[in-house]
Amino acid sequence: GAVVSQHPSWVICKSGTSVKIECRSLDFQATTMFWYRQFPKQSLMLMATSNEGSKATYEQGVEKDKFLINHASLTLSTLTVTSAHPEDSSFYICSARVQQGYEQYFGPGTRLTVT
Amino acid sequence: GQQVMQIPQYQHVQEGEDFTTYCNSSTTLSNIQWYKQRPGGHPVFLIQLVKSGEVKKQKRLTFQFGEAKKNSSLHITATQTTDVGTYFCAGNSNYQLIWGAGTKLIIKP
Questions:
Q1: N or C end of chain A: smaller count of CB under 10 Å?
Q2: Buried b (16+ CB within 10 A) or exposed e, A78-99
Q3: CB distance B97–A93 less than 8 Å?
Q4: For B98, which of A42, A43, A108 is closest by C-beta distance?
Q5: pLDDT values of chain B reduced to their tens digit, one per residue, 109 residues
Q6: Which CA distances in Å does A63 have to A60, A66, A86, B59?
């Protein structure tokens, strides 16, 4: 149990285009989902926390207009990287949590390359 | 599908005792990462192992990557209260990060 999927696994896009990444909790309902970004050999950097049905809470320094997060249901959250640039190339990982105090379950990540 | 099995799920130790967690992948990994997550916190990257048979140390922590690059272990010598948390391995395979379920280190009172 407690499986989180992400789609796509990897994506290459051209500079200026937008990319949507999906995060799904497959066998549980997640009231909260987290989006992380990871640079090579570095820790996960929390980008935002999203609670189902409400606006995401972004960490300091993360542009909310650039990284659009939607958590429309208890099993799906999406991250859209708008007007992507090469510096947005990174590994994006989501995690899902049933409720506060419970474990986070991590997705397999999405590798984004912007050319 | 690709899996990384991590055991044990929990380990209760007395302070000063050693702790070990093991990860075993169903496929060969390009590298494996280890993270520590304190209660209520987010995972913090500890180390990445890339080479077959690699052994790395960070103070009381010893990380190993198996010869076949399918298994790995983390050993903590003489645990301290600051070691409490959940330790995750995450294997890189085909551009995906496959997470182990984590091992929770609990220090007995």
A1: N
A2: bbebeebeeebbbbbbbbbbbe
A3: yes
A4: A108
A5: 678 899 999 999 999 999 999 999 999 999 998 999 887 677 888 998 999 999 999 999 999 999 999 999 999 999 999 999 999 998 887 767 788 888 999 999 8
A6: 8, 5, 16, 37
